[in-house]
Amino acid sequence: MSPRDVFVLGGNRIPFARSGSKYLKASNQDMLTAAIDGLVARYHLQGERLGEVAAGAVIKHSRDFNLTREAVLGSHLSPATPAYDVQQACGTGLEATILTANKIALGQIDSAIAGGSDTTSDAPLAVNDDLRKTLLKANYAKTPKQRISALLKIRPSQLAPEQPKNGEPRTGLSMGDHMAITAKAWGVTREAQDELTVASHQHLAAAYDRGFFDDLVTPYLGVTRDQNLRPDSSVEKLATLKPVFGKGDAATMTAGNSTPLTDGASAVLLGSREWAQEHELTPLARFVDAETAAVDYVFGDEGLLMAPPYAIARLLKRNGLTLQDFDFYEIHEAFASTVLCHLAAMEDPAFCKERLGLDEPLGAIDRSKLNVAGSSLAAGHPFAATGARIVATLSKLLHEKGSGRGLVSICAAGGIGVVAILEAAE
Asked: What CA–CA distances, in Å, run from 1 to 99, 105, 290, 366?
């Protein structure tokens, strides 16, 4: 049996909100359920048993050990729909899409939902490790005397909770600190970062104003648009912000040209051509192929977020394409500097030859085709939710155009890059 075509049939997300604000009391499960149910309502899937649902979250409580399945059980899908969690840092949503698309292509399932949810407002707080061990020992005690003896060993210094850490375990540096080093190495300027940021806000605002997101976003807890969106953003306003990452000449990254901590969830509906026809759904885009790469940012000299160019080079080669063979480029804006470093690397002959093993550089892209409906700098970045947001956005852009091809590129913690190709559905 040859692989079947896989189509993106629709998408849905809740508006993204800044951490500690509108979704302060919403859990990952709450938000993922809302994103799934919005998709179910839009495409009349109430009571439908899908092939599976794959989603995940990066910041999770221990109670979220079966997050996606619980979200499905809380939705209006049939409880007989299987579900499982995926976790690949910021690549989670796209990786979930890849996994489900592959199963559809192989004929194992006919339909699926892929997505992700994340909240830093509801981040778990860990107890002191010594306190944790003491409490476990008390729990395992067989007599009251043993339990009291264990609890008496608790010290006041152990009672303070450990704050969540925003750093790479292998280096101790935050993602922003890593990116500041890379931005300096590639000579990315503050002005270029601010210009890219303004474009993201302007494009997202314009997309909202023309109704582009009317069938991609459902209101949640009174929020109707992404809370981070600043339609009046300007290079002049961004220039007044102080750098928050990097030191000296490397201090070019601000809160404005970096994505803020964000809460939200997203989902996309995938299916075979036959399943789409049976349910009278119009395919938006064909999910063509995908690739994942990793770089050695610990012992090597590569930047933490520089894996996507490696994945792109492999993906293009396998599909007989060039970097210029695309009508849309959806490059995740973890930081404005990240996008600019990726573009610079793919244009650089030395990088492409020495790192990617290419005789010629991948080359430049037409910047007018980059993130044309806005991206993470404007919308925000709930880690696991970004992939499905981008896939849904690109699929609708391709459907509107009626032809063409799009490239998705997402960097992720741990030195990971996840990329994919979509084409307009025929």
From this structure: 19, 10, 20, 39
Annotated catalytic residue 381: yes
Task: State the catalytic residue, choosing from 332, 352, 399, 411.
Answer: 411
Sign of CA dihedral 172, 177, 181, 186: positive
> The tokens of 9 are what?
């049939």
Q: Within its chain, how far is the Cα of 275 from the centroid?
A: 27
CA distance 188 to 208: 30
Which DSSP category does 64 fall into? G
- Cα 46 to Cα 30, 53, 81, distances in angstroms: 18, 14, 12
SS3 of 256, please? coil
Residue among 90, 203, 332, 342 flagged as catalytic: 90
Which structural domains are found in the chain, ordered by start?
A: 175-211+288-424 (3.40.47.10)
Q: How far apart are CA 227 and CA 215, in angstroms?
A: 18
CA distance 229 to 208: 10
Tell me which of 178, 201, 381, 399 is the catalytic residue: 381
The tokens of 186 are what? 């590639």
pLDDT in tens, 119-172: 999 988 777 888 889 889 989 999 999 898 988 888 888 878 777 677 899 999
Q: Rounded mean pLDDT of the chain?
A: 96
383-409: pLDDT as tens digits: 999 999 999 999 999 999 999 999 999
